[in-house]
Amino acid sequence: MEQKQYSQEEMNSINNSLFTVVGSKLEEAEKISNKPYSYWKSVFARIIKSKTFIISSILLITIILMAFSIGIGAEPVPVDTPGVDIESPSWDHLFGLGKFGEDLWTKMWVGTRTTLIFTLFVASIQILLGILLGAIWGFYSKLDMVFIEITRFLSLIPSLILWLIVIFLFGGSTSLPILIFAISITSWIALAGIIRVQIMIIRNAEYNIASRVLGTRGPKIIRKNIMPKILPIVIQTSTFAIPTAIAIDSLLAYYNFGFVTNTLDQASLGSILNELLLGSDWEVYPHLLIIPVVFVGGISLLFFLVGKVFADSLDPKTHR
Q1: Who wins on pLDDT, 240 or 69?
Q2: Could you tell me the domains of the chain?
Q3: Measured between alpha carbons, how far is 22 from 43 in angstroms, rounded to an integer?
Q4: 27 phi and psi, to 5 degrees?
Q5: What is the pLDDT, as a whole number, of residue 57?
Q6: Calpha distance 134→188 (Å, rounded)
Q7: pLDDT digits (tens, 9 = 90+) for 151-210
């Protein structure tokens, strides 16, 4: 079969009937065909898809609302119930009656409210101090030895002994502000150490060096460049602050140095547990121990699950 030979002019010519001129579209050429990306929208989308986060958040909000609405103005142990025996849970008393004849339903919610207030202050101060001091410690290498010596000195003294020293310096008072101050002296060290290491890893990254060359000040570099990078780790670590604060409440109550000094007029989850463990009534009536343990463990677990899912959602590597 013979092939038709075309001249150079025929090859260079274009048959315009085969084409449709649509014109230039410079605006579309500059657009990225991929979907627009928003960091916080992506975080919110991942949180909404997590059943663990939704269920844990609903349960946690419900507990907080009930704690701050049930038993307002009521005494954990009413004075008009002398000589009442312990009773197991029933329709009249959902959590039963305690060793002093008190309604455990009211007492548990009063104690939960007190513990949540204590936990909020302790965890907030711990997280704020940990982030602030850890960022300064990790970014400014000249202050490294100063922070190392401070943390080494504070770590040499057992935390409980340091708390007791502060309490005795204030005349043996175990009021809430004094206990919060005593605990805050050392509570920031663990979180600050983690943030320090993370900042040291990315402190000399190219974009941070470029920011310093352009004259950007250190605080702005920490706030804009570094903190968003390590935010998931900060949130993940901070989730342990609330369970730790609840454990501290129980520990101080066990040694009779809790901020609840009179268990008949006041209550916290730590004081309730301590009060029960001093006797053996819980062996005959297991609900006396099971209910407080479920409250302490359940609240700690819910805070942890909410924080963990939120921290995982903040990691940009998991968004796509």
Answers
A1: 69
A2: 40-197+226-318 (1.10.3720)
A3: 41
A4: -65, -40
A5: 92
A6: 9
A7: 888 888 888 888 888 888 877 666 778 888 888 888 888 888 888 888 888 888 887 788
Number of residues written out for the chain: 320
The owner of tokens 């297991």 is: 286
**Distance between CA 190 and CA 40 in Å, rounded?**
28
Please determine, for residue 55, whether its predicted confidence score (pLDDT) is greater than 90: yes
